[in-house]
Amino acid sequence: MRDKLFVDKTIEINAPASKVWDIITISEYNSQWAMEFSSGGPQFHLDSTWELGSPVLWKGQDGTVIVEGNVTAVRQYKLLRFTVFDVRSPERPPVMEEDGITFKLSEENGKTMLHILQGDFSVMTDGAKYRDASADIWDKVLPKVKEMAEQL
């Protein structure tokens, strides 16, 4: 059995959880941080109703779906988890409960701790390489989310 490979990062944001939630879930905002995932390619945004079981589509400016998934857990202002599959990938690995991207928000005294977990990359060929690349992207995304939430 392989060790699981996750990106696991936390950032403190000087804003209430409701503002951080908006930055994550509203297309107008998430398009500004999601472009970090495109590696200089076309800009895209996340499109979803964010209800349990609803699709999550990462769409390019022309409406093309690049990545798709489904919401697997949601508690407004506290928890959001969704699966992610690159539609260009020929195979989809099996999905476990904790797989995909998880945002956990905890607020205290007007500050929010945003914890993200992404993986499990161990089911992929060269999983460690993809986990490390994703970790580098989150190192750019989280400060952007922080900056946006603090200015909202």
Condensed summary:
With 152 residues, this protein is α+β, with helices and mostly antiparallel strands.
Name the features.
152 residues, alpha+beta, Alpha-D-Glucose-1,6-Bisphosphate, Chain A, domain 4, 8-stranded antiparallel beta sheet, 3 helices, globular
Secondary structure: elements and pairs:
Blueprint: E1 6-13, H1 17-25, H2 27-34, E2 44-47, E3 55-60, E4 65-75, E5 79-82, E6 85-86, E7 100-108, E8 111-119, H3 127-151
Antiparallel strand pairs: 1-8, 2-3, 3-4, 4-5, 4-6, 5-7, 7-8
What does this structure look like?
There is one protein chain. The protein is an alpha+beta fold and 152 residues long. The chain has one domain: Alpha-D-Glucose-1,6-Bisphosphate, Chain A, domain 4. It has three helices and eight strands; from the N terminus they run βααβββββββα. Strands 1, 2, 3, 4, 5, 6, 7 and 8 form an eight-stranded antiparallel beta sheet that branches. β2 and β3 form a beta hairpin. α1 packs across α2, α1 packs across α3 and α2 crosses α3. It is globular and about 45 Å long. The mean pLDDT is 89.
How much is the average pLDDT?
89
State the distance separating the first and last CA atoms. 45 Å
- The top level CATH class name: Alpha Beta
Strand element count: 8
Strand content: 25-35%
Low-confidence stretches: none
